Amino acid sequence: MRVLLTGAAGFIGSHVAERLLSRGDEIVAIDNFDETLYPAAVHEENLAHVRTHARAGALQFVRGDILDADAVSALLDGGRVDAVVHLAALAGVRPSLREPLRYSKVNVDGTVILLEAMRARAMRRLVFASSSSVYGVRNEVPFRESDPAVHPASPYAATKRAGELLCDLYASIAGMTVASLRFFTVYGPRQRPEMAIHLFARSILDGRPVQVFGDGETARDYTYIDDIVDGVVAALDSTAPGGTTEGHRVYNLGGARTTTLKRLVELLEGALGTRAIIDRQPDQLGDVPLTCADVTNASGALGYSPRVTIEEGINRFCGWLRASRGAGAKLTE
Would 208 be classed as within a structural domain? Predict the structure, then answer.
C-alpha cells in the first residue's frame, strides 16, 4: 500500500512512518518543520530515525506545508496513493490560546485543503488525528465517543472538533471512509519536548524546579506511543473496502487508565532515581482536570488493546531520555 502521511517528522508521525515501512508499505510524506513548539532540529532528528530504517528507500519525503494546495496536489498526483494518514497540525492547548487565528488556519484550512484534494481525485480512505481535548471539561468517566463534544476548552480543541465535523461532511458528500482518532496524551521516545512528561523529566535530571499546576490531583489518561501506532495502523486498515470502518467513525485511542499529576511525578522520580523540586503554580486556562478513555469501540472495530502500563512506559521513556542525552540528541529546554 502507498500512504500519504502528513506531519511525518513529528513525534507520532515519525513512529507511524517506521511502522508502515516495517510492514512493507510505501510512504509519501510531508512536513513543514514548524517551530511553534520546538526547533526544526528536533523534526530533523525524528526524520533521521526514519531514514535509518532498512526500507527507507520506500519513503518519499517533501518538506512542505499542507496550506500549500499545489504542494498537496503534487504529492497526490506524483504517484498512486491508496490512503491518507493526516497527522499534521499545530498542537498544544496553551499556545493555541495565544494564537487562535493561526491554529484555526493550519488545523482547519489545512484539513479542508487536503480533503478537497482527495475529493478531486476520488480518493476515499483517510485517517484523521483528533484529540481527547474535544471532550472539554468533564467529570463523568470514562469518556465515550457518543458523549457531547460541544464545549471545547481551548482553540486547539475547537479546531480538532472542527476537523472531525469536516471529515463527517466529506464522508457524506464524497463517499469517503474516514476514521477520526481521539488521542489521549501520547508519550514515549521522541515525545514533544514541551509536553509534561518530557519537560518534567529533563527538569528533574537537571535539578531544576518542576512546575506543577494546581494541587497535583488532575488526572490524565496517558497512552504509550507503541499503543497509539497500533491504533493508527489498525484504523488505516479498517478503511479498506470491506473493512470495519464505514463512512465516518470516531475512535478513542487511550491507555484506559488515569494517573494523577502527583503520581506521574513520583513515577518519574523513581525511574530517574532523583527527587523532584516542586514549584506549585495556579491552574492554567485551557487545561482540563480529567481525561479517561473508553476504548470499547476501538477494541471491537480495530482490535485495539493498550498493552503498555504507565509504569512500564515511564521506565522506557526515561531510559530513552538518558540514552539520547548521552548521544548528544538535540533536545530543547
Answer: no
The set of residues, in sequence order, having a beta carbon less than 8 Å from that of 77 and lying 6+ positions away, is 121
Strands 209-213 and 277-281: parallel
Beta bridge partners of 26: 2
Alpha-carbon torsion (189, 194, 200, 203), positive or negative: positive
Q: Dmax over Cα atoms in the chain, in whole Å?
A: 56
* Cβ-based burial of 309 (10 A; exposed 0-12, middle 13-18, buried ≥19): middle
User: Which grid cell is 134?
Assistant: 474535544
CA nearest neighbour of 140 among 294, 250, 287: 294
Q: Which three cell numbers stand for residue 180?
A: 477520526
Query: Catalytic residue positions?
Result: 156
How many independent structural domains does the chain possess? 1
Mean pLDDT of 8-19: 98
What pTM, to 2 d.p., does this model score? 0.95
Listed as own residue / partner, the contacts of 201-207 with beta carbons closer than 8 Å and 24 or more positions apart are 201/268, 201/272, 201/317, 201/318, 201/321, 202/321, 202/331, 202/333, 203/276, 203/277, 204/268, 204/269, 204/272, 204/274, 204/275, 204/276, 205/272, 205/274, 205/321, 205/322, 205/325, 207/274, 207/277
Establish if 49 belongs to a structural domain: yes
- The one-letter amino acid code at 277 reads I
User: From the CB of residue 280, how many other CB atoms can be counted at a distance below 10 Å?
Assistant: 12
Digit-coded pLDDT (tens) for 98-121: 999 999 999 999 999 999 999 999
Go through 95-117 and write b for each residue having 16 or more CB atoms within 10 A of its CB, e for each that does not: bbbebeeebbebbbebbbbbbeb
CATH code of the domain covering residue 80: 3.40.50.720
* Short-list 132, 144, 140, CA closest to 93: 132
Q: Which range (6-20, 78-92, 110-124, 291-305) has the least confidence?
A: 78-92
Give residue 104's domain range. 2-184+225-254+293-306
